[in-house]
Amino acid sequence: MPRWRNTSWWKDRDSLSWRFAFYLFSFFGGLSVLYHESWLWRPAMCWDNYPNQTLKPALYYWYLLELSFYISLLITLPFDVRRKDFKEQVVHHLVTITLITFSYSTNLLRIGSLVLLLHDSADYLLEACKMFNYAHQWRVCNSLFIVFSLVFFYTRLVLFPTQILYTTYYESIANSAPFFGYYLFNSLLVMLQLLHVFWSCLILRMICNFTKKGQMEKDIRSDMEESDSSEGEEAQEHPKLKNGAAQGPGVASTDGPRNRAAWQLANGHMLAT
């Protein structure tokens, strides 16, 4: 099927640049807003003088920007290319929107901003990885995927439970009794952590394909309908056939675990975090 007739092909590529731009701007913009705040480096200080904490204008506008972005993701999700983790993405966006709204209304903006910054730290790397894949820059794509995986594992599986969940569960009630918002807020954070584990398992499965099999399968999140519509595209985008024969003269071999990473991104289907 010609690429100009492949709706899924265009849907993925049209959304990459603006998502990359937003995640990049949001992460470094949020970092500039929070860099001089003491509670960025010591999450326990998020509870100092709570709830009588002053809301700075920069943090207010950054919060509104993040809220509007995730609302737009939720609205447009049914019109994007459908993945096997569609339900998980819906849950993720709903939980995120609820967390942003609830933390703003209860003045939990300090800890809420740390959650947002932590999540934005890996997302722009993922979008950049997919863009380089579509540009057929396999080495850059593979390198970015490795960096993305390391950042994702560290922020989601190390920093989030040991810094964010710890301070919200224990340090937040060190000087006060638990209240309704305490249980709701922590329940939503636990739901996020479960999604982190789910997507981490998918990434680990991809890494196993890189290192053990020496070849990449199609995206493990792609459903049958999408896979059928993009079979011809996979053969065009990657220079290797299933039997390993090159598609034309001058095409470099892609044998080996690292260079096979392009197979996993052949359709640009990656994890939504």
TrEMBL record:
<keyword id="KW-0443">Lipid metabolism</keyword>
<feature type="transmembrane region" description="Helical">
    <location>
        <begin position="60"/>
        <end position="79"/>
    </location>
</feature>
<dbReference type="GO" id="GO:0050291">
    <property type="term" value="F:sphingosine N-acyltransferase activity"/>
</dbReference>
<feature type="domain" description="TLC">
    <location>
        <begin position="11"/>
        <end position="212"/>
    </location>
</feature>
<dbReference type="InterPro" id="IPR016439">
    <property type="entry name" value="Lag1/Lac1-like"/>
</dbReference>
<comment type="pathway">
    <text>Sphingolipid metabolism.</text>
</comment>
<feature type="region of interest" description="Disordered">
    <location>
        <begin position="221"/>
        <end position="258"/>
    </location>
</feature>
<feature type="transmembrane region" description="Helical">
    <location>
        <begin position="20"/>
        <end position="40"/>
    </location>
</feature>
<protein>
    <submittedName>
        <fullName>Ceramide synthase 4</fullName>
    </submittedName>
</protein>
<comment type="pathway">
    <text>Lipid metabolism; sphingolipid metabolism.</text>
</comment>
<dbReference type="InterPro" id="IPR006634">
    <property type="entry name" value="TLC-dom"/>
</dbReference>
<keyword id="KW-0444">Lipid biosynthesis</keyword>
<feature type="transmembrane region" description="Helical">
    <location>
        <begin position="180"/>
        <end position="208"/>
    </location>
</feature>
<keyword id="KW-0472">Membrane</keyword>
<feature type="transmembrane region" description="Helical">
    <location>
        <begin position="140"/>
        <end position="160"/>
    </location>
</feature>
<feature type="compositionally biased region" description="Acidic residues">
    <location>
        <begin position="225"/>
        <end position="234"/>
    </location>
</feature>
<dbReference type="GO" id="GO:0046513">
    <property type="term" value="P:ceramide biosynthetic process"/>
</dbReference>
<keyword id="KW-0812">Transmembrane</keyword>
<keyword id="KW-1133">Transmembrane helix</keyword>
<dbReference type="Pfam" id="PF03798">
    <property type="entry name" value="TRAM_LAG1_CLN8"/>
</dbReference>
<dbReference type="GO" id="GO:0016020">
    <property type="term" value="C:membrane"/>
</dbReference>
